[in-house]
Structures are given as structure tokens and as C-alpha cells.
Amino acid sequence: MENKSNAFLAGVFTIGLAILVLFSLFWFSSDHAVRVPYDLITRSTVNGLGPQADVKYRGLDVGKVVSIKFDPQVPGQIIVRISVNQDTPITRTTYATLGFQGVTGIAYVQLDDTAREDGADTSSPPLHTSAREPARIVMRPGFFEELEKRGDSLLTQTETLMSSLNEMFQTNNREIGRAHV
To answer: Which of 1, 111, 117, 154 is most exposed, with the fewest beta carbons within 10 Å of its own?
Structure first.
């Protein structure tokens, strides 16, 4: 009889310990930050951006991307729902861009503020948001998108420069340069 009661207690202890370990893993792996939603609005591409991508404010991790969808009211417009720590100083002059992590092509959302860039009055009013009606933040083109837009003119200018350099180093121009030296 005593063996059966010891085995029962050992089983209950083992099950209780397993439940405690699982609860501890769940507790320590979950994020307990209070987050608020914002909608990023863009007509640009969002290549490499996916749900659970990082959201950074001036380089600091402050949240995650919740969802990406087309705007049902405006054709071609994309809404990126983000969830940001409640204490993040998002104001009416805050904007978003896409940043890329290394050469992987994985994108993240970079938030910044024009008032802080200009060094001007940093007392821009905070942008209020709620779960029912998330505030909207404009998403500006990132570095690579700007480079893509200006790529044709950069290539044309580079071609003109190379042509001028080629002409400058022609044989007869070098002969003229040697005669003057």
C-alpha cells in the first residue's frame, strides 16, 4: 500500500513540476509590454516586409508589424498595421520608412521624426491612437526606393562623365598636354 501512495505522490509531483516549467517558459517568452496600434499608409512597394517584422524608432526596437493589407477605400494604397510600445514618443511629425537588415532583404519599419531632424521645436503634439481607430502615419520612400527612382538619371550622368573622361584621355589630348608641360 505504501508503494502505491509513494508512486502516486511522485507522479503528482512530476506532473506539477512539468506544468510549472511550461508555465515559466510561456511567461518568460511572452512580451509583457503595453502596445498601441498605428496604421502606416503607403503607395510604394513593401518588399521584404512581413508580419512580425521589427519596428524601430530611431534605431531602438519599439514594436512589431501586425498585418499588411490593401486599403479597401483607396485602390493601390497599402496599410501596414504596427503595434508600438505605449511610451514611444510618436508625434504628428513622425514618419516611417523601410529599412533593410544586411544583405538578406528582410525589411523592418524605421520610425523617425522631422521635428527632431531639423533641430527645430521638438514640442510637436503627440499622435493619439486607439484600438478602435488607429492613427495613420505616412510612409516615405526609403533609400533604395529613392535610388531606384533616380537610377536612370544617375546612369545617364555616369555615362556622360565616362564619355568626358574618355575624350580627355584620347591620344591627341595627351600629346597636347605633354607639349604644355
So the answer is: 1
Name the residue with cell 514611444.
88
Size of the chain in residues: 181
User: Got the DSSP string for 22-69?
Assistant: HHHHHHHHS----EEEEEEEESS--TT--TT-EEEETTEEEEEEEEEE
Q: What is the pLDDT of residue 15?
A: 93
Phi, psi of 60 (to 5 degrees): -95, 135
Among candidate residues 67, 66, 68, the one with its CA nearest the CA of residue 84: 66
Q: Model-level pTM?
A: 0.65
Backbone angles phi, psi at 10, to 5 degrees: -65, -40
DSSP state of 126: B
Per-residue pLDDT of 134-169, as tens digits, reads 999 999 887 767 777 777 788 888 889 888 888 877
Whether 91 contacts 124, CB under 8 Å? yes
